[in-house]
Amino acid sequence: xxxxxxxxxxxxxxxxxxxxxxxxxxxxxxxxxxxxxxxxxxxxxxxxxxxxxxxxxxxxxxxxxxxxxxxxxxxxxxxxxxxxxxxxxxxxxxxxxxxxxxxxxxxxxxxxxxxxxxxxxxxxxxxxxxxxxxxxxxxxxxxxxxxxxxxxxxxxxxxxxxxxxxxxxxxxxxxxxxxxxxxxxxxxxxxxxxxxxxxxxxxxxxxxxxxxxxxxxxxxxxxxxxxxxxxxxxxxxxxxxxxxxxxxxxxxxxxxxxxxxxxxxxxxxxxxxxxxxxxxxxxxxxxxxxxxxxxxxxxxxxxxxxxxxxxxxxxxxxxxxxxxxxxxxxxxxxxx
Length: 336
Fold this sequence. Notes:
Layout: E1 3-7, H1 12-17, H2 19-28, E2 33-38, E3 54-57, H3 62-73, E4 80-83, H4 88-96, E5 101-105, H5 109-114, E6 117-119, H6 130-140, H7 158-168, E7 175-179, H8 192-206, E8 209-213, H9 219-227, E9 234-236, H10 243-252, E10 255-259, H11 262-270, E11 274-278, H12 283-286, E12 293-297, H13 317-320, H14 324-335
Parallel strand pairs: 1-2, 1-4, 2-3, 4-5, 5-6, 7-8, 7-10, 8-9, 10-11, 11-12
């Protein structure tokens, strides 16, 4: 039996979209041990994953931290290290552990010297969906293609469900998640009053409570959304829940509404009915994949997708042209 050490992407969005490739690797190595290295932010995503044997939450931080992590992993005798992203610190850690096979993407001579097998996919990465890219990367590094990759939902653990029930209280009977923000990318933000209009319609016609999520940085926009929902059963949890609880909340929602952000990708991966509005994001790379997820994007604009965090034009056209009624009726459609 071999031991594999997989290094999860460090960003939340990419860590979620690595899920299909993880399924491929597990199916290719059904009897081998798979240990997953993840940073503190992304580790909770895979805390209860049935596709790994051990989760290793590790952090970066210089030579002292690297030595401590080497001591922690040194006795495992891994056969293969696999990298979704070419992260030099993790690659050097794998080499220090003397892992015989180190597989990843080729990005310059230094990576070629530290990895034992590489593929050149830098241009391909810009041409296809991120999830599909990770699957192609795994395949070109020797992993057999899987017919089920991309069809199995991201699992919601009982731990996550219990955590969600604790914070929902009286709102647990039926709710829509409205994800605020992202505050650090204002180009992706839709006006709070428009989000509230859609949520108000779902309350009026389906008695769906409104659960607002987001980071601490999104608290101002979340409060603005909540202020537009007077008379609607609303629970503002922006900045109040951890990743595990958020997973449970998403898994139990009748529908999730939000911009192109990690939580919306997670809802999509879970197969939850989801409506996502795109402004600067490229749907080719970051669009939804589930049949229960719909994308709304203004048409006819030459400046989209621009992939910028802030707009340099007088008006925020790509988001201002997203129509409230269209978003509402698409919510109705994905809910069935």
